[in-house]
Specification:
D-Maltodextrin-Binding Protein, domain 2, 352 residues, single chain, alpha/beta
Length: 352
């Protein structure tokens, strides 16, 4: 009898060990293509919550938002990450988000969380600015432009140098291109921004479709072969030049023009998609993105600044990255209302 009992116990244990283990539940996060996070950070959330994270990269910010809007009746994700202040009003108008106010927002400055009504949560920010090639300006004994109006001076045009000095991205196809367009509207107003762009065109500005082409093909400091020593990029790009340099550098070869209204501040948000069947876990992920571990991972993954004031910056970021003291700002509702018309008018002036 005893032997039979032992046999039954062993048989039960064998069956238990051979039984397939159930997979953890999943949480799906829709992001833009520039999203990046360290594996150990992802693993930390998964382990803490017994969940598996799935990331769906969905193109640039506008494309990602279009996808979320078109599928809002049957959402493809639980959380949307990366909608910024140039598209925020459209996202809210489309009613794709489930309201949630994270308790960790107490660690975020008021200017990042005003007028959000709990619909989205600010995660990071960065400034789109004009970056310049230090070596070019030194070798040509040329002063650095300090304002947008300075860019209209003849010394920064093709007539003086033989080649245009500035390359910008098309705002219809590029997020930094759109941000720079908005900076010019903030500076010159709706009545004057097109006149500024006409001046840039007369001065020989080069327009390309995307940031990769502008930075890695046209910009002289990155490729070494480009013809333009100024490019619309990010104020964190000088830090990236040092961090990713093939040989160690003690100084970045580039810097940003940080005058009043020369940069546009982008703020990226995350929101819980309405219709999620994982509401509690989605809320936990929003909290996680606002907590120090994720926030401190941001700078070297996406070259953006954390919004959590308790997050420390990497030493390379503190030394080489820049942020504008007086960036251009526009009401997100105004951007939402006028964005398409502004782009259409810009296109008629710049790309006839």
């Amino acid at each position: 009898m005893k032997t039979r009992l032992i046999f039954l116990v062993l048989f039960f244990l064998l069956l238990t060990s051979c039984a397939p283990k159930s997979s953890p539940p999943t949480l799906t996060v829709m992001t833009h293509d520039s999203f990046a996070v360290s594996e150990d950070v992802v693993k930390a959330f998964e382990t803490q919550n017994n969940v598996s994270l799935i990331f769906i990269k969905s193109g640039d910010t506008g494309t990602m938002l279009n996808r979320a809007v078109l599928t809002k009746d049957s959402p493809q994700a639980d959380v949307l990450y990366g909608v910024d202040n140039t598209f925020l009003s459209r996202a809210i108008k489309e009613e794709i988000f489930e309201p949630y106010t994270s308790p960790l927002l107490v660690n975020v400055a008021n200017n990042f969380k005003e007028n959000l009504d709990g619909m989205v949560t600010p995660i990071n920010f960065g400034d789109v600015c004009i970056n310049y090639d230090k070596k070019y300006f030194i070798s040509h004994n040329l002063a650095i432009p300090q304002t947008l109006n300075d860019l209209l001076k003849s010394e920064y045009g093709s007539s003086a140098s033989g080649a245009p000095l500035l390359v910008v991205e098309n705002p219809a196809t590029s997020s930094p291109g759109l941000a720079f367009l908005l900076a010019t509207i903030a500076e010159f107003g709706e009545e004057g921004y097109l006149e500024f762009w006409r001046g840039l065109k007369s001065n020989g500005v080069v327009v390309v479709n995307d940031w990769d082409t502008a930075y890695y093909t046209n910009f002289s400091a990155s490729s070494g072969k480009g013809l333009q020593p100024m490019v619309v990029s990010y104020a964190t790009s000088p830090a990236a030049e040092v961090i990713y340099a093939s040989s160690p550098l003690t100084e970045s070869p580039t810097a940003s023009i940080l005058g009043v209204n020369t940069c546009f501040r982008q703020i990226e948000y995350a929101g819980i998609l309405k219709g999620t069947k994982n509401l509690t876990m989605a809320q936990k992920f929003i909290d996680f993105m606002l907590d120090v571990q994720f926030q401190e991972d941001l700078p070297l993954q996406m070259f953006m600044y954390p919004v959590n004031q308790n997050a420390s910056l990497p030493s390379e970021f503190e030394k080489y990255a820049q942020a504008a003291e007086n960036p251009a700002v526009l009401d997100p509702a105004l951007i939402s209302e006028k964005r398409d018309q502004w782009i259409k008018d810009w296109t008629e002036v710049m790309l006839p």
